[in-house]
Design goal:
The chain is elongated. Helix 20 links the parallel strand 1 and strand 2. The strands form three sheets. It has a six-stranded antiparallel β-sheet with strand order 12-9-7-6-14-15. Helix 1 packs antiparallel against helix 5, helix 5 packs parallel to helix 8 and helix 8 runs antiparallel to helix 9. The N and C termini lie far apart (84 Å). It folds into three domains: 345 residues, no CATH class; 108 residues, Translation Initiation Factor IF3, CATH 3.30.110; 135 residues, Immunoglobulin-like (Sandwich). Helices cover 51% and strands 16% of the residues.
Length: 644
């Protein structure tokens, strides 16, 4: 069928829009942890990539393809992510072709427009990971599957077109070597194939079924060398799973598929309502609706059923985004686009024109609502720091600004050192922990003690703690043996600074100060008493309580040049670096609580007062302080220090 030139122009416009959204600000954000893994693997030999993938949860296909891309494009953020961006544009083209095959050229155009704009597809097309390629291979495999299945109908050969079969084999095997979630796609194809063969039997169902099973066997044969590794990794890899109520799961599924991860569920209602309206329009139209429905439902159901509908694993749903675009694109094409259709409507009865007017208004409202949600999600993706990726570039820049000889950096996640070392080329020594997976507590503690003995200041990058250090061995040891001075977030990475003491802190000054009715400060240790700007004041507080505590309190340690003015330096935090909260204190037990107070680099020389207090975590209300039954306000003066 010959396309109208205007239609071709609209299709090209969709592709250009999809390309612009995917390449726009492509290098603006830092590489994050998993992208660092892609970066380093792509620089290795094919053999090293294969061996590394055998110990990872992802097969080697994407990394091998990225290696070839890196040779051509380079390894900057924009260059390396360009591979995913290109795969994203190809996905838009494939969505158009699928829409045209299943429904109509107009539906294909509507689906391509929604695919170009889809925030979920755009997000992962701007990431140097395998997910954009996964979506593209999913769409390509389904297109080849559908074309092959149609070619087996009479009068075509029962085994279908040989070229289509070969292309399907290669594409589907590539998908399996790209990500294990591609298995969801293969399962959906088998269900759709059984339905298609049953609906179009015409006396040769057995032969066509045998041809399909042979095609699946050939695909499995291509994946067979990697199959034992895949089964081992899938069955043994630790993963946080979550069960959700049915309606919550449905809402989250719709949010990810239609509006992506950069729009919270509480802000996605209008956009999801619009998508639901377009879906109703779609289901009223003719076409091969059952295939995209199966394609959509199988990955969605498996993602929910396996407990993978979480922030970390919802990206597996990318294989289901193309069918979602197809169904919504069919709804987008449900209105009369040509002048001839409008002319016929003008000559119809009043009742029919009123009905068409209502239908048009509902369609416009649904399309507008979806457009509004999409625009908000894309705006967050590009411009809202709350949705940016982890900023290792910013971490490295900050550490270079505050660096002192002798500083050390500890990375606390598998492969985190890969991305951090891309930005951190000189300065502080870097120690990747843990050195084994799962973490060896005794070996890790010994390594921490060795590092702390060598370096006066430690910077620790906490990320993925639940998998890397579920018992928080590293953080607990640091809170007990060093002095936490600060916490700062760079995306999902928490950068903490600690001062390592020369010796274990002991109570140096005994007190009988009471905070509130039942909390007592038995004493403290303060080192050193003479500091320079930029140093970390080390304060250990020894707390106890007469009764169990029902409220959580934070400790503040303030340094004042003038007690009537705001503090010149401070450190606030729950006891024990946040791991020994007051509601867990046992009556009568002594709680040693280390605090490090970083002094500003421009702090003027002079004498400063150190004061401490407690305030309720959620209200900010300070506890009154009494010494020898006399009230002294809501803070206690400990000592003076000298800044030289």
């Amino acid at each position: 069928m010959r396309r109208h030139p205007r239609f071709t122009s609209l299709l090209l416009l969709c592709l250009c829009l999809g390309a612009w959204l995917r390449f726009y600000r492509l290098g603006y954000q830092s590489y994050w942890n998993d992208e660092g893994n892609s970066l380093r693997l792509a620089a290795r030999s094919a053999g090293d990539i294969t061996r590394a993938a055998a110990a990872d949860i992802h097969p080697p296909g994407y990394y091998l393809a990225l290696k070839a891309w890196r040779v051509l494009a380079g390894e900057s953020e924009a260059a390396l992510r360009g591979f995913s961006a290109l795969a994203g544009v190809i996905t838009v083209a494939l969505i158009y072709r699928l829409g045209r095959l299943y429904f109509s050229p107009a539906a294909g155009l509507g689906a391509a427009l929604l695919g170009a704009l889809n925030p979920f597809l755009v997000y992962y097309a701007q990431e140097a990971r395998m997910y954009a390629l996964l979506a593209a291979l999913s769409a390509a495999s389904f297109l080849l599957f559908s074309l092959w299945l149609r070619s087996t109908r009479p009068p075509g050969p029962p085994r279908g077109g040989a070229r289509l079969a070969g292309a399907y084999l290669v594409t589907t095997a590539a998908g399996l070597y790209t990500h294990y979630a591609f298995g969801f796609v293969v399962l959906a194809q088998n269900l759709a194939a059984l339905g298609g063969l049953a609906a179009h039997a015409r006396g040769r169902a057995g032969t066509r079924l045998a041809a399909w099973l042979g095609l699946q066997a050939a695909t499995l044969l291509l994946f067979l060398p990697w199959l034992p590794i895949a089964l081992r990794q899938i069955s043994s890899w630790p993963a946080e799973r979550a069960a959700q109520p049915v309606w919550t799961a449905l809402a989250e599924l719709a949010r990810y598929l239609v509006l992506g991860r950069t729009l919270p569920l509480d802000a996605a209602g209008l956009g999801l309502l619009g998508a639901g309206g377009l879906l109703l329009f779609s289901l009223q139209q003719r076409g091969q609706t059952i295939t995209p429905i199966i394609w959509l439902l199988v990955p969605a159901a498996l993602t929910v059923g396996l407990g993978l509908l979480t922030e970390a694993f919802a990206k597996f749903l990318l294989v289901a985004v193309p069918p979602a675009c197809l169904l919504l694109g069919q709804g987008l094409a449900a209105m009369p686009w040509r002048a001839g259709g409008l002319n016929k409507l003008a000559q119809a009865s009043l009742a029919r024109r009123l009905g068409a007017g209502v239908r048009l208004a509902l369609w416009a409202a649904a399309a507008g609502a979806l457009a509004s949600g999409t625009a908000m999600s894309l705006s967050n993706l590009y411009f809202n720091p709350a949705f940016f990726r982890d900023d290792y570039r910013g971490i490295a820049r900050y550490l270079s600004e505050v660096y002192r000889p002798g500083d050390a950096v500890i990375t606390l996640a598998p492969n985190q050192v890969e991305v951090f070392s891309y930005y951190h080329r000189e300065g502080a020594t870097v120690y990747p922990l843990p050195e084994t997976r799962p973490l060896d507590p005794a070996g890790t503690v010994a390594r921490l003690a060795e590092i702390a003995a060598r370096h006066p200041r430690l910077f620790v990058l906490f990320w993925g703690d639940a998998q890397a250090d579920p018992e928080r061995v590293v953080e607990r040891w640091l809170n007990e043996h060093t002095f936490k001075a600060s916490d700062a977030w760079f995306g999902q990475v928490r950068l903490a600074m600690y001062a390592a003491p020369a010796s274990a802190p002991q109570p140096e000054t005994r007190l009988q100060a009471r905070f509130g009715d039942v909390i007592r400060l038995e004493g403290y240790a303060l080192k050193p008493e003479r500091l320079a700007p930029g140093d970390i004041l080390q304060v250990t507080l020894f707390w106890t309580t007469d009764e169990p505590l029902e409220a959580r309190y934070k400790v503040f340690v303030h340094v004042y040049a003038d007690e009537a003015q705001p503090p010149a330096a401070q450190q606030d935090g729950e006891p024990g670096g946040g791991l020994v909260v007051t509601t867990g204190w046992a009556p009568g037990a002594i709680v040693a609580d280390n605090h490090g107070v970083p002094l500003p680099a421009n702090l003027p020389p002079g004498n400063y007062a150190v004061m401490v207090g407690l305030y309720e975590l959620f209200t900010g209300s300070r506890l009154p302080v009494t010494v020898d039954n006399a009230g002294v306000g809501d803070r206690l003066r400990l000592a003076s220090i000298t800044v030289e």
